[in-house]
Write a structure and sequence with these properties.
Number of helices of chain A: 1
Radius of gyration of chain B: 27 Å
Number of strands of chain B: 4
Order of helices and strands of chain A: HEEEEEEEEEE
Largest sheet of chain B: 2 strands, antiparallel
Distance between the termini of chain A: 75 Å
Largest interface: A-B, 30 and 33 residues
Strand content of chain A: 25-35%
Helix content of chain A: 10-25%
Radius of gyration of chain A: 25 Å
Oligomer: heterodimer
Strand order of the largest sheet of chain A: 1-10-9-4-3-2
Shape of chain A: elongated
Amino acid sequence: MQQLTRRGLLAKGWKAGGTLLGVVTAWTSWGLLRPLRASGASGKINVGSASNFQDGAAVYNGVGRFWIANAKGNLFALSQQCPHLGCRVPFCESSGRFECPCHGSIFDIGGEWIAGPSPRGMDQLAVSLDGDNVIVDTSKRLDGPSRGANRFLSDPKGPPCAGNG
Amino acid sequence: MTETPSAKVAQTELGDAERLALEPGVSPVSHGLSARVRDGEAWRSVFRHPGLDTPRGRALKSFSNVFLHIYPVKVPARVLRMRYSWRLGYIASVLFGILLGTGVYLMFFYTPTVTSAYGDMQQLRTGVGFGQLIRNVHRWSAHLMVLVVMFHLVRVFFAGSYKRPRQFNWVLGLGLLAITLGFSFTGYLLPWDQLSYWAVTVGTNLVDYIPVIGSLVRGVLIGGDQIGQPTLQRFYALHVAVLPVSLAMLLMVHIWRVRKDGFAVKRGGIGAFAEAGTGVPGEEPVVLPALMATTGSDEAEPRVRLLGVVDRESVTAEERLTDDTVFTWPHLLVRHGVVGLGTLALVLGLGIAFAAPLRGLANPNLTDERAKAPWYFVGLQELLSRFDPLVAGIFVPAGLFLILGLLPYIDRNPATEARNRKVAITVFSIMLIAAVGLTVIGALFRGPGWKFVVPWKHWYLEL
């Protein structure tokens, strides 16, 4: 190892100090700028009795911004945000499917991908039963099922909604 | 006051007689109040140059003015030609200035909260004198600036001006492009209407496709998992503070380097110093012995004072037969003035003729069927609708920026003329055509549900 001169030590010290300052700045910035915990609508939402949700129907919850969908007896809380680019996915009554008006992704009643650019099915929020009441935990979010799951796939009930014509 | 060696400046105190003696051929300045003011101490304390219309006077004017200092005193004559650069960089700077001016006006009437932002925009439109005009000019200048910066990049590529010694200035230019896009994108959200909300929703969701860190970056950007108050506040802070300062600083370095690199003068010219500094192995710069002063030869290591480093070629290149340079003032500045005023006239005309869009209040529960990313990201969106998100969302854009950033270091071909750069020009042209094609398809040929439409029947592009 080369002999450490005073100048060499100081030069190294400057660099070490600069690096340290950079790390501290980055750490502070991260603390300040990291995503805030969603407030207001977050947490558990009671959406009422499970018997309110008919098979093949989807009910919208405006507070938590999700759909409660009954797919062959399975209850799903489906986030309204399309996994593709975040548009709100409405439920099309006539076809019985979720149809994204922005970029044409189509999902079945269980939120599984049928067609369009979405990389996966609709994202889900955790659902639990408290007695007969359905509780949706909006802070627990799961990625939607991958393409081709096709557990609830059936022919569309009727014509698709406007915009996908 | 005593006479100091630097009292040459005292020529500013000269009367007409002395001035005439110094500058033969100059007609005497008329006497009267204005002459007395201009010869007075107060005036001269501000404007030190005598302001004479002679070569020396023009040079002094540039030397003694901090704002003119960004220009060299003289520039190569070809810089004056419009076809030399199309003034694209300059026009982009002018647009930035217009955006700063109009932006400050807008700040007087705008509060970045989800409850008041949209109302402020309406109030600006209907209740503030010239409010609508200022907003229109701001918006059209912003779109134009993105466009002009892109044209500037394309122009510099085809001119081969990214080559040694300007490699790093090309990289800085890419940084300026990124900041410009950031400006436009953050500004998009501020009106808080349906167009803002869904364009930014779609735009920020593109970030999600970056593997591993994507959702984290998106979270930091929008401050949550959906667009809301934190997003508006962050975008506002970025738009009015972080980005303007970053752009101004980077632009300063960019322009300074344009000047120091000698306005694309060939090797050995004004850019000789920059070239020597950029260094190429095996091509040692010449240190002229006459410029080195040693302090005694008995010392083991003579202390050397380096006064100048010149490229070997430039020593001979110095013997230029004709002076091909002209004074910046007035030749270049007059042209810049005309182009600057033309740019201002253009955006004013656009602002008077076309209103900036303002749709309904942002509604997270009502997706706009026409939701498209801003036009400069629409090509990416089109790509994303056709290919795997990892390919379209990550590899293509990241690869593009990486290739562009490394271009001056990859492309070792020193030629600047098109016939000797066939490969580079072919590859770049294909990429350019692909980018323009995808953008045109995404912007004009896509309607609700991203279905194919023809623009002459249905128009789904809003700026």
